Amino acid sequence: MPNFNNDDIDIRNISGSSFQYSNQKLYKLDAVEYTLATIAVDTSSSVQGFKTDIKNCIKNIIQACANNPKAENILVRVITFNSQTQEVHGFRLVSEISTDIYDSIGTYGMTALYDATFSSIGATEDFAKQLDREVKGVCYIITDGCDNASSMTPTQIKNLVEKCIKSESLVSFLSILIGLTNDDDQIVADALKYFKTKADITEYISYTTSPKDIAKLSQFISQSISSISNSITQTQPLSI
Amino acid sequence: MFVDSFEKIGHGKYVCQDYIIHNNSFSGIPYTILSDGCSSSKNTDIGTRLLAYTARNIISCIYEEDFTFYESAYTFLGKEIISRATNIAAMLEIPDTCIFDATLIFSFKRGNDIYVWMYGDGYIIAGDKNSHYKLKVSFPNSAPNYLSYYLHSRCMNEYKSRLNPENIKYIEDSKYRDICTVSADTPIVLRFNIINDPIVLIASDGLNSFVCPETRNGYSDDKLINEILDIKTINKNFLQIKMRKLLRNLSKQGTYNYDDISIGGYINEEILK
């Protein structure tokens, strides 16, 4: 659930669902272009063993993005999911996020992977419309297991992805499913790849649950956000 | 009140010869100034920059004068700007005055009034999305009366004898149905009230250069102006946000600006809220 007790934010509904998201007030956002990055993190009970590494991963991503020359153009939303989805914070300028907020993340319950994916992509699509300027969207969904608690389906997610791609509000959109799987998790890995295909998610990549790999994951995500935010949007074709 | 500007190179061009500057406060004066360089003359991209900044400095000299002075001193100001810019170019050891084969539209705000001067061709637009005033100035053979011609009488005479023998320009003023013809050196100095006209814009003639290369259909400048005035996001980047979105949508339709486009202006957010 978004944090309602904050005058600094707006709360909005994601159409086609009962999900909500929050964002920093629009009047504070006056740049010409923005990158909307959503990080959805599995906090089901199976993640307990590497919970601290995951928290540090998110903190490192935020700190790296805050040092990006285009930090004033990057808005980040972080949600966690187990039996339900919870918004840790809504779309907020990365330079204004205090990483202490991630210390409160706990692990318990099942895995509402599809709901989290829907919430991530749906909020990106809707907020891009609200911003009404050049917006690049990217969603990272990090999970170590298959879905077993969602109300949304891969087909609904696929329809939402199509909406994002066709959206006039988004100049680019990427969705990346990240599986935290070890060698003996082939069934999970296969199920996640199947979900990626069914839901038309852009990319699936996998990392192990070792601290070293999770640290690499934070590097990958922060470099990816940097690359997307620094990319030039073309309004004319390159060829003459 | 916000002031903003936007420029984009023409499709297929290598150098943008339009130049536009704006500031919410230069010596306390909000302004926006553009210059459109002749694509057939060399290094006009340098000339347009020098002209824009020279005009900016002139503004602080004339800021306290009244409107009758502005109208009467039109030619004097034009000569003063080109003279100063030429001196700066000479100091930089750039001898060719053809770098100043360029138009100039400069404007500033004083109180609730926006003052606009136009040398050459271009657009002045005032109003909002529901109704607006448009002034479009153009010249025969697309050959404007450039500021460089003010330097020497022989340049002006050559312009009058060769490029524009009738020495005229065309004024498309939205107050009148027909296009008027006036002498090429008729002063164009206008004043608008930012309360009555919450959006005031100046633009180069690139506004009239949108074409779809596949169908060869031009995109009407009136249609473009209506879309520009429909500003939804009002902040310090209101024009950049609007123009980038508009050009992106036009490019999806296969329509591009074939000349450089520069547009700048003022928006009164209190009226439009």
SSE diagram, text form:
The complex is a heterodimer of chains A (240) and B (273).
Chain A: E1 9-13, E2 20-24, E3 33-42, H1 51-66, E4 74-81, E5 85-93, H2 113-131, E6 134-143, H3 154-166, E7 170-180, H4 186-198, E8 203-207, H5 211-230
Parallel strand pairs in A: 3-4, 3-6, 6-7, 7-8
Antiparallel strand pairs in A: 1-2, 4-5
Helix pairs in contact in A: 1-5, 2-3
Chain B: E1 2-8, E2 18-26, E3 29-36, H1 44-62, H2 67-72, H3 74-91, E4 104-110, E5 113-119, E6 122-127, E7 132-138, H4 153-163, E8 168-173, E9 180-183, E10 189-193, E11 199-203, E12 210-212, E13 217-218, H5 221-229, H6 238-252, E14 256-257, E15 261-267, H7 269-272
Antiparallel strand pairs in B: 1-15, 2-3, 3-4, 4-5, 5-10, 6-7, 6-11, 7-8, 8-9, 11-15, 12-13, 12-14
Helix pairs in contact in B: 1-3
Gist of the model:
With 240 residues, chain A is an alpha/beta fold. Chain A has helices at 51-66, 113-131, 154-166, 186-198, 211-230, and strands at residues 9-13, 20-24, 33-42, 74-81, 85-93, 134-143, 170-180, 203-207.
- Estimate the mean pLDDT confidence of chain A: 91
Mean pLDDT across the residues of chain B is: 93
Specify Rg of chain B, calculated over alpha carbons: 18 Å
Q: Helix count of chain B?
A: 7
Separation, N- and C-terminal Cα atoms of chain B: 12 Å
Beta content of chain B comes to: 25-35%
Interface with most residues: A-B, 17 and 17 residues
How are the strands of the largest sheet of chain A arranged?
5-4-3-6-7-8
Helix content, binned percent of chain A: 25-40%
As a percent range, the share of helical residues of chain B equals: 25-40%
Q: How many strand elements of chain B?
A: 15
Largest sheet of chain A: 6 strands, mixed
Q: Give start-end ranges of low-pLDDT stretches of chain B.
A: none
The radius of gyration over CA of chain A amounts to 17 Å
Describe this structure in words.
The complex is a heterodimer of chains A (240) and B (273). By secondary structure, chain A is an alpha/beta fold. Helices cover 34% and strands 26% of the residues of chain A. Chain A has helices at 51-66, 113-131, 154-166, 186-198, 211-230; strands at 9-13, 20-24, 33-42, 74-81, 85-93, 134-143, 170-180, 203-207. In chain A, the strands form two sheets. A six-stranded mixed beta sheet of chain A has the order 5-4-3-6-7-8, sandwiched between helices. In chain A, helix 1 links the parallel strand 3 (33-42) and strand 4 (74-81). In chain A, helix 1 packs parallel to helix 5 (211-230). Mean pLDDT of chain A is 91; it is low at 234-240. Chain B is of the alpha+beta class and 273 residues long. Chain B is built from seven helices and 15 strands. In chain B, strand 12 (210-212) and strand 13 form a beta hairpin. In chain B, helix 1 (44-62) packs across helix 3. In chain B, 30% of the residues lie in helices and 31% in strands. Chain B has a seven-stranded antiparallel beta sheet, with helices on one face. Chain B has a five-stranded antiparallel beta sheet with strand order 2-3-4-5-10. At the A-B interface, loops of A face helix 6 of B.
